[in-house]
Amino acid sequence: MKFLHMRHRGLLLLALVLAVLPLVLPNAFYVDVAIRIALNAIVVIALNLLMGYTGQISIGHAGFYGLGAYASAALTTHFNWPPLAALAAGAAATGLLAWLMARPILKLKGHTLAMATLGLGIIISIVINNESQWTGGPDGMSVPAFTLAGMTIAGETSWYVVAAVLLLLMTWLALNLIDSPVGRALQAIHGSEIAARVAGVDTTKFKVRVFVLSAVVASIAGSISAHYIGFITPGMAGFFHSIELVTMVVVGGMASVFGSIIGAALLTILPQLLQTFEGWEVVVFGVILMATMIFMPKGLVPSIAQRLRSRRKGNN
């Protein structure tokens, strides 16, 4: 109960930070970075449910992100669909694809599972590149503004509210899922799939469901990002974006919802800060990641929390 209470205190703290943040950020550039952090964090939280809590590796989730973005772009541009309907259609199509692929893919384990998800992501990226009549091909395409009930969401302030509310909602859903029987089943699968089966857990069903959930969330975030940015390219569905998402999970902390947010924040801000190194930013970025993995192998948030608990025990 105490741990549950701490989690909900964390949610209240996150809500407070999100409420205060736009008041202290100096200009629109920083608000834009905050929006991108929130959208990345939404995807990373869902991916952490799959990787950190269930123990299933996926390095192709940028493909689902790209599907959502391009579904919204294509349906609103070529067929004049309302943006919300396009977003829902993209999420439904992505969920269906993830469900169809989940059963054969999730039978694999370890590096073979990673390669299968990588292959799925690469296939999605290739399709987006080749279907230029619908996607604009390698040049990308423009995305219409997001309108809802005759109102257009425009400007950093409005988009910040949307991103902050969605991040809070995703965090609340993830925390409640983890504390539910479903969450305990997912963690049992991570601990030992054989033991979970012996205990009566339908491991295939739960793995498929969390895979589909993480894919749908990635699709929705991709759609929102597409309308916010206003222009998309196939790179958002590419391999390197998938690696970025996985790195955010690992650096922030596996099996840590708030670690996902910290990881997304750090790895969204770092490229901006490292631009001053003029060509060496990738090297510095790699050194930071290596240092994190060497000295904090569980990720930032779990490692810091463990050290704080150890100090308290030592003081007592």
Overview of this protein structure:
It is a single chain. With 316 residues, this protein is mostly helical. It has one domain (2-315). Helices cover 77% and strands 3% of the residues. The chain is built from 14 helices and four strands. It has helices at 2-24, 28-53, 61-78, 83-105, 110-130, 132-135, 156-178, 181-191, 193-198, 203-229, 239-252, 257-273, 281-295, 300-315; strands at 141-142, 146-148, 151-153, 231-232. It is globular, with a radius of gyration of 20 Å.
Write down the Rg.
20 Å
Beta-strand percent range:
under 5%
Shape: globular
Strand line-up in the sheet with most strands: 1-4
Helicity range: over 70%
Order of helices and strands: HHHHHHEEEHHHHEHHHH
The total count of strands amounts to 4
Distance from N terminus to C terminus (CA atoms, Å) equals 21 Å
Largest sheet: 2 strands, antiparallel
Number of folding domains? 1
Number of discrete helical segments: 14
Low-confidence stretches: none
What structural category arises from helix and sheet content?
mainly alpha
| Average predicted local confidence, pLDDT | 91
